[in-house]
Amino acid sequence: MNRDGCVSLLGIAYETGVSHSIDSLADAGIGDPSLVAEIRREGFEQFSVFSGRAAEIYARVLSASLAEAGLGMHAVGTVLFASPRRWWSEEDENALYEALEVVGFERGPVWGLSLQSCSALGGLLTLGVERIRDGGQCVLLLLDGLTPAAQKRADRNRRTVFSDGVASAILAKNQGKLEVLAAASQTSVRLRLEGRAGSQITQLRETQSMIVGVVERVLRQCDVGVDDIELICSTNLNMTALRFIAALLGVPEARLWTQDLSTLAHVYGCDNLIGLRNAVRKGRLGPGKVALLIGWSHHVASAVVVRRKE
User: Fold this and answer.
1) Strand partners, 13
2) pTM for the full model?
């Protein structure tokens, strides 16, 4: 994918809200004690909730990303944005534009990506790397992981807890320590139309096939084998889901990044990027080593291969 030069991922930054114990779910009437106990068995201890305006949160995270990368807004040519909301209201759009004005982005392509569920990062990187290859300036990525107001904070069927979070990063040519080797995503239209009304066994098999297919695709693109993968950052749906990914790929569970699950819970669409940033800072990805980022849900899957430079 990056045959015309190294495409780097740098300036990873994120912010989550105020941390709460999962016990507060029962106190607030969001879940009963049995649900809290079930969620705790899946590895969750805390979740985060934002109370501020989205525009202010976006602006802080974008500013932190630029500062981390050591870049000014003049270096950015394109902004790519993804949100868990399927469609955006005028209020949502205004929050993004207000944040971009605050950080000094006056004019240029601003693209919004929807319908990606937990695979938002894979979709943004697929578009962003192509933009860099076409000779564009740096690409600024923004992922909105704010839980929609209509969505329940805890989900008994999925055995998960949703946290609020926003993440950002920058794609640039030949800069930074993380190199994007390949990125891809795919959607099963049939699974989306069926919802969860069809055969669960049949649907699970198709979801598995979709995940394996997109992983195999990116590994082929960059000539990397499963055994070469040092670190896997997957969707933090719950601990069972993380172990499912390890079993599906036939790799040891020790390669999974699981340390964010208990404290940050499931930050919709942002788990991959947050996990990569925290894992690198904790020394889990050494020089020359490769990480695989997997985003997946019922009907959408994405995979990204990232290598830390020597």
Assistant:
1) 168
2) 0.94
